[in-house]
Specification:
With 160 residues, the chain is mainly α. Helices cover 59% and strands 0% of the residues. The protein folds into 2 domains: 104 residues, lambda repressor-like DNA-binding domains (434 Repressor (Amino-terminal Domain)); 34 residues, no CATH class. Helix 1 packs antiparallel against helix 5. The radius of gyration is 26 Å and the shape is rod-shaped.
Length: 160
């Protein structure tokens, strides 16, 4: 029943690692208790999708000395992760919205940012020939087109 999306697997792994850290265990110590390799537990904590089964989460948390309530909460977390929503919203309580907590987690653990905006024209491409070509396809008079061209050029210049 491994987690299928990377976002939820990372959040689950982060929570598991917090339990291990609070128990004062190294990966090697925990690996001996659980009967898994340190490499496997490292993949689990780093959010590699498909590595966290419910039974593995139970063994992991029990070896860290987690309470029954904590085990139940993380098991539900593991089950919810398998919904494959493509994003992850974990319950955070009343003091912070779920989406804000998830955004903060994923932004702090990201190593790359990608921005795709097909509707935005970069500033360096907004030249006079570009604006003329853009406005030439509109069905307006030449005088009106020239007035709009002057307006567009004026609004694209930096004001110092």
């Amino acid at each position: 029943m491994g987690s299928r999306n990377r976002a939820s697997a990372r959040e689950l792994g982060s929570r598991l690692q917090a339990y291990r850290d609070s128990a004062g265990l190294t990966l090697r110590d925990l690996a001996q208790k659980v009967g898994r390799s340190p490499a496997h537990l490292n993949r689990l904590e780093n959010g590699v999708p498909g590595t966290a089964s419910e039974s593995e989460v139970v063994y992991y948390l029990a070896s860290c000395g987690a309470s029954y309530g904590d085990v139940e909460r993380l098991l539900q977390f593991c089950r919810d992760a398998n919904d494959d929503r493509g994003y992850w919203l974990c319950p955070s309580g009343e003091w912070m919205s779920d989406s804000l907590r998830s955004l903060m987690f994923h932004e702090s653990s990201a190593n790359q940012a990608v921005n795709y905006q097909p509707e935005v024209i970069p500033g360096l491409l907004q030249t006079e020939p570009y604006i003329q070509a853009l406005l030439s396809h509109e069905n307006i008079s030449t005088e009106r087109r020239q007035a709009r061209h002057v307006d567009e050029i004026g609004s694209s210049k930096f004001k110092g």
